[in-house]
Specification:
It contains 13 helices and 13 strands. It is α/β, with parallel strands linked by helices. The strands form three sheets. Strands 1-6-7-10-11-12-13 form a seven-stranded parallel beta sheet, sandwiched between helices. The chain has a four-stranded antiparallel beta sheet with strand order 2-3-4-5, with no helix packed on it. It is globular, with a radius of gyration of 21 Å. Helix 8 runs parallel beside helix 9. The longest helix has 22 residues. The chain has two domains: 316 residues, TIM Barrel (Alpha-Beta Barrel); 37 residues, no CATH class.
Length: 359
């Protein structure tokens, strides 16, 4: 059975007897360690590990974790040393980026601060033929021949706005200028729907999938009440468009403690969560399933940090996830990138254990 068929069977609570073996990502420091432990220099990591990515994406140029603004802001360098560079990025954010570290940059200032600044961004979020891949036909053919689950990229309803403004500015905007905030979310949804109308008549995808990262260790950056009022309509518009093309799964990638937003997301049509991090708040896929039912699908929820604690801990974490694997609507995968404390041999052992499971 191709992985694409297996994915669809699992997500529709159909017939299956195994899990796909998924590798997501690693930290650069992890790669450096693994090269010392046997990873071939220059090797394709998925091929080396005999593992698969989550899925394969098709879509217009909206952006992933970073929005594709047309035209982008002109990048400018204000200061540069041996260890850092201060610059304005293509999304208008001024940051201090470290040269010798993979840590998050320090965000110093924003072009988008209040509602009066919104128009210059809105003009960069409009339909444009330049957003379509020049070789769209080949992209579609390659995707269909890949044997992978296929996703249409649905952008980011809140995460991009958070990136452009920062958490503090966004929080004030939601309170002081809610109509502007609602226009922001709907502008993004309109752009996503435009892309679907151009691409989805030519290819059948298995899910729509977007990125958010709007939750932290203490919960979401928006209250469920404000989410329902100003954010959910944008999700619902995208969900309706997906349904019109026969796509019944709509997922989001959101780190942090998502528990308070899973219900509002479901009501807005988002029925797949990834990665459901375990974290300090002990995110639990089974607990979420019991609370929200089988309409909620989940990918992830294997605590990546157990990979640093030896094979007995790894096996215990696999066993914790087995009831969800058997119930369906769930695929086991690490709940984020593999950390530098993980020996290559133990990670390969973990993948082998998933490979040999009989569900």
């Amino acid at each position: 059975m191709r992985y694409r068929d297996l994915f669809c069977e699992i997500m529709s609570y159909g017939t299956y007897n195994r899990m796909p073996v998924i590798h997501w990502a690693t930290w650069p420091e992890t790669d450096r360690r693994w090269h010392q432990e046997g990873l071939t220099e220059g090797a394709d990591l998925h091929e080396f590990l005999d593992a698969t990515p989550h899925w394969r994406g098709v879509g217009a140029r909206f952006g992933g974790t970073d929005a594709y603004l047309l035209p982008p802001f002109e990048e400018e360098i204000y200061e540069e040393t041996e260890t850092y560079v201060i610059k304005r990025m293509s999304d208008g954010v001024i940051c201090k980026a470290w040269k010798n570290s993979c840590s998050i940059p320090q965000f110093l200032d924003y072009t988008l601060k209040t509602g009066k600044d919104w128009e210059t961004y809105k003009l960069r979020l409009q339909p444009d033929p330049a957003r379509l891949p020049e070789n769209l036909g080949q992209v579609i053919a390659d995707a269909e021949n890949s044997g992978m689950p296929l996703t249409f990229g649905t952008g980011s309803i809140m995460g991009w706005i958070r990136n452009w403004m920062g958490v503090e500015n966004m929080s004030f905007l939601m309170y002081d200028e809610p109509d502007v905030y609602a226009d922001m979310t709907m502008t993004i949804a309109d752009l996503v729907c435009w892309g679907m109308d151009l691409i989805l008549p030519h290819i059948q995808v298995d899910l729509g999938f977007g990125w958010e990262d709007i939750c932290g260790r203490s919960g979401p950056l928006v209250s469920p009440q404000l989410f329902d009022k100003y954010v959910a309509p944008a999700y619902a518009k995208i969900r309706d468009k997906l349904e019109s093309y026969g796509v019944h799964l709509y997922g989001v990638d959101c780190d942090g403690d998502v528990r308070a937003l899973v219900g509002p997301w479901l009501e807005a049509g988002v029925n797949l969560q990834m990665p459901v991090e375990v974290g300090t708040w002990e995110g639990d896929a089974m607990e979420l399933r019991k609370r929200h039912g089988r309409e909620l699908r989940i990918v992830g929820n294997f605590n990546k940090l157990t990979l640093e604690r030896g094979r007995e801990a790894i096996e215990a974490e696999i066993q914790r996830c087995i009831p969800m694997m058997r119930e369906g609507g769930y695929i086991i995968a690490t709940d984020h990138a593999v950390t530098p404390g993980v020996p290559l041999a133990d990670y390969q052992w973990y993948l082998d254990r998933i490979r040999e499971l009989s569900i």
